[in-house]
Amino acid sequence: QDYSHKLTCITGRERIVVPIRAIGARAILDFPDQLDFSECPVKHSTQKTLLVRNIGNRVALCQLRTQSPFSVVPATGTLGVGDTMQVTVEFHPLTTGDHFGSLAVCYNSGEESIHTNLHGEAVDVNIGLSTNSVKVEKTFITMSNHTTMSIENRSNITAHFQWKIFPTEKHDNEEKMRQRYFVRPSKEQWLENFMEERKTEQKKGFCEDRTALLSNTVQEEMAKVQGDPLLFSNDFFSIEPM
């Protein structure tokens, strides 16, 4: 905290004002103004590690915040005067193109946040399929047949893959939203459930909290929908490995 006062000296002929200021101790972390990830593979994590030092004259208690597709570890930290710590910033883009963000460092003393500008360019890497069309030979009914194809990774990163129903995460989210709509009970179901509670209570004098049970069931179903990776599924075709 800073303090500011005035010392006023009054004589018979004049008035003299002497300003008095005391600057409180500050924690100052030497984050860079800009952090550039340059070109990075899309849908792949790229990390940069910063060695941050407290060049102030007070212990630093701080929080670190940023926004997707950037993340930071640790999210909070305590750093003594003259001490250093490692801060890892991760860039995980889901779409190609330029991405911009800001890394905010907030001190617990109430000081204004300092910001590091973040930039990364996400690009496609050379990973593709050996063919865009697969034809299985004629197969007897009730029997099975198979053919093979390849995923070719010509890049310098390790590629993790899944065979999916939909082509993008946006389409996945739209499908999950549609499924959640059908999982959610209608007003008629809630009313019917409530009336059953009342009937049971009148007969037995007590009853289970059917509303809570229904609510828990709905939440479980919602969690299943949200956690479904929506992998490829078909009544006639299968893929291995998925």
From TrEMBL:
Domain HYDIN/VesB/CFA65-like Ig-like: 27-120
A GO cellular component entry from the record: axoneme
Entry-linked Pfam families: HYDIN_VesB_CFA65-like_Ig
GO biological-process terms attached to the record: axonemal central apparatus assembly; cilium movement
Domain of life: Eukaryota
Record keywords: Cell projection, Cilium, Cytoplasm
InterPro entries from the UniProt entry: Hydin-like, HYDIN_VesB_CFA65-like_Ig, Ig-like_fold
Cellular localization per UniProt: Cell projection, Cilium; Cytoplasm
The protein's name in its UniProt record: HYDIN protein
Originating organism: Certhia brachydactyla
